[in-house]
Specification:
By secondary structure, this protein is α+β, with helices and mostly antiparallel strands. 23% of the residues lie in helices and 32% in strands. A hairpin with a 4-residue loop joins β4 and β5.
Length: 71
């Protein structure tokens, strides 16, 4: 589950496992597998970061480091 914000600022929690696509048009639109759509304040990159963080935490996967040692 990831915390996001609707365009008017209302916070809501979205099940990240149901996300099919995330696109900028120019607002960020999230489409779920059931074709329901959400327009959010967060950028595509922010949504992706939240989903990766969630999945990493749930599956306890190590975060890959670059050759310079950065995450």
């Amino acid at each position: 589950m990831v915390i996001l914000h609707r365009l008017k600022g209302a916070e809501f929690v979205l099940n990240a496992d149901l996300i099919e696509t995330v696109e900028a048009n120019p607002d960020t639109i999230i489409t779920l597998v059931n074709e329901k759509k959400f327009i959010v304040q967060e950028s595509v990159a922010d949504v992706l970061e939240k989903v990766v963080t969630y999945k990493t935490r749930i599956h306890r996967l190590p975060i890959a480091k670059t050759e310079s040692g950065e995450e």
